[in-house]
Amino acid sequence: MPKTLEGQITMEKTPSYFVTKEAPARIYAMSRDTKLIVVVRDPVTRAISDYTQTLSKKPDIPTFESLTFKNRTTGLIDTSWSAVQIGIYAKHLDNWLQFFPMRQILFVSGERLISDPAGELGRVQDFLGLKRIITDKHFYFNQTKGFPCLKKAEGSSKPHCLGKTKGRTHPNIDPEVVQRLRDFYRPFNMKFYQMTGRIFGWDE
Ligand SMILES: Nc1ncnc2c1ncn2[C@@H]1O[C@H](COP(=O)(O)OS(=O)(=O)O)[C@@H](OP(=O)(O)O)[C@H]1O
């Protein structure tokens, strides 16, 4: 990590920290004042998205439905499958709370990041103690991509959309399997809402 001068913020990102057992202790040892930002989305959609990403690299993997279950007849979910495991947010958060207080952790809603990017970014700026520089003016909705894209407020440079690997079309998944996963995640989601004080609305 580069050294940070007074008035500067150093930021670093990786998708795997949140679910890595050793990460909280290591980050705490480096700087206990670190602020943590985590983007979370409906764990069922997250699992399907995760699978879609793997499928794009390895087209021969088994179906989503078969990977989801340890035993399809009994409906026993395979919690050791990383696509399922990662969405048990309450469990991962417990691990972080052994080292960091909730006030140092911000959870950003992946759904709101799409439907109201400026609103979510407003929360991020507040959390970091920054002036609200990024606002509605900085986003426009790209109909072709189906996602918001970033533009300079002054409109001088070209807008920036995220690349082709973000926003892939998901395969159709057996609705019964989706429902079983919804039932599986519900109690963990409820616990997560309670811990974070925010209702993410994944179970409505
Ligand atoms: N503005 C904008 N443009 C494109 N995509 C957007 C945007 N905002 C959020 N998303 C969602 O980001 C999802 C991919 O992010 P990941 O965290 O999975 O990416 S990665 O792990 O770093 O590859 C990706 O998930 P999928 O739709 O499943 O591909 C998108 O839903």
From TrEMBL:
Disulphide linkage map: 149-161
GO molecular function, one term: [heparan sulfate]-glucosamine 3-sulfotransferase activity
Residues annotated as binding 3'-phosphoadenylyl sulfate: 41, 49, 166-170
Nucleotide-binding is among the record's keywords: no
Keyword annotations from UniProtKB, A to Z: Disulfide bond, Glycoprotein, Transferase
Enzyme Commission code(s) on record: 2.8.2.-
UniProt xrefs under SUPFAM superfamilies: P-loop containing nucleoside triphosphate hydrolases
Keyword Disulfide bond: yes
Residue ranges of domain Sulfotransferase in the record: 28-186
Source species, domain of life: Eukaryota
Annotated family: Belongs to the sulfotransferase 1 family.
Name assigned to this protein: Sulfotransferase
Organism: Megalops atlanticus
